[in-house]
Automatic annotation (TrEMBL):
It comes from the Bacteria. The chain crosses the membrane at residues 6-24, 31-53, 65-82, 112-138, 144-163, 175-196, 216-236. Keywords: Membrane, Transmembrane, Transmembrane helix. This is Putative transporter. Coiled coil: none annotated. The keyword Transmembrane helix applies. Pfam families: DUF2162.
Length: 247
C-alpha cells in the first residue's frame, strides 16, 4: 500500500509544483495567486465528489481522450510560449519586475490565461486516483479528497509565492520567464504524450528474457568501446599539452 500512497503523493507534487511554477512567473499579484490556488484546490475536491458516483464514465473518458487532450494541451502551451507581447523583447528581459507586474490585464494577456491552468485531464486523472486509492488506504473518499486537495492548494500557493519572490529578487521580467516556462512544459508534455502510452502498452505485453548468444562478442565490443574512449582521452591530453607549449 505504501507504493500506492507514494504514487499519489508524487503525482500531486508534480502537478502542484508545475502549476505553481507557471503561476509564480505570471503577471498576477499575490492576492490573485492566493485566490487561484484556492480555486484549484476546491476544483480538485469538487471533481472527486462529482466523479465518485460515475467512475466508469470517468474511466472511459480518460481512456478515450487522454492522448488527444495531452497533444492539444502540449500544442497550446508551445504556442503560448512562443508568443511575445509588445512589452517584451530582448531589452526587457531585465525589465524591473514592479513595472512588469503593473501591466494589468490587456486583451493580449487574456490568451495566456489557459497557460497557467493545470491540464483538465491531469486534474481528472488525479481525482480518479483519489477515488481508487481511498478504500485501499482505509480513508473515506471525502477525507482523502480533502487532504489531497489541501496539499495541492498548498503546493501551488507556496511554489507560486516562492517563485514570485525569486523573480522579484533577480529583477527579471516575469512575462519572459513565463513564456520560456510555458514552452518548456509544452515540449515536455508533448514528449510524455508521445512516449508514455507506448511505454505502458509495452509493459503490458508478455516479454521473454533477453538471451546473450555470444558473451565473448559482447565483451569484445565493451573492450573496443573502452579502448576508443581511452584513445580519445589521450589524444585530447596531447592536444592540450601542445596548445599550452605553443602559448
Amino acid at each position: 500500500m505504501l507504493w500506492l500512497q507514494g504514487g499519489l503523493l508524487v503525482a500531486t507534487l508534480i502537478l502542484g509544483i508545475k502549476t505553481g511554477l507557471i503561476l509564480g512567473t505570471s503577471w498576477l499579484n499575490r492576492w490573485w495567486l492566493i485566490m487561484i490556488s484556492g480555486i484549484f484546490g476546491i476544483s480538485l475536491y469538487g471533481l472527486v465528489l462529482a466523479f465518485s458516483a460515475h467512475q466508469q464514465v470517468l474511466v472511459m473518458f480518460l481512456d478515450r481522450y487522454t492522448f488527444v487532450g495531452s497533444l492539444l494541451m502540449a500544442v497550446l502551451l508551445i504556442y503560448l510560449g512562443l508568443q511575445q507581447g509588445p512589452e517584451q523583447g530582448c531589452s526587457s528581459f531585465r525589465q524591473p519586475v514592479e513595472k512588469a507586474l503593473k501591466l494589468g490585464f490587456s486583451l493580449g494577456h487574456w490568451k495566456f490565461i489557459l497557460g497557467f491552468l493545470p491540464c483538465p485531464l491531469c486534474l481528472a486523472a488525479l481525482s480518479f486516483s483519489i477515488i481508487l486509492i481511498s478504500p485501499m488506504v482505509g480513508m473515506s473518499l471525502s477525507e482523502l479528497g480533502r487532504v489531497i486537495a489541501l496539499l495541492f492548494l498548498a503546493l501551488v500557493l507556496v511554489t507560486s509565492v516562492a517563485i514570485r519572490k525569486i523573480v522579484q529578487l533577480v529583477k527579471f521580467n516575469p512575462a519572459t520567464i513565463f513564456n520560456t516556462l510555458l514552452l518548456f512544459i509544452g515540449i515536455l508534455t508533448l514528449t510524455f504524450a508521445l512516449t508514455v502510452p507506448n511505454f505502458v502498452q509495452s509493459m503490458a505485453m508478455p516479454l521473454a528474457p533477453l538471451t546473450i548468444s555470444s558473451p565473448h562478442l559482447v565483451a569484445l565490443v565493451l573492450v573496443v568501446m573502452a579502448g576508443l574512449g581511452l584513445w580519445g582521452y589521450i589524444l585530447y591530453q596531447i592536444s592540450y599539452v601542445k596548445d599550452c607549449d605553443n602559448q
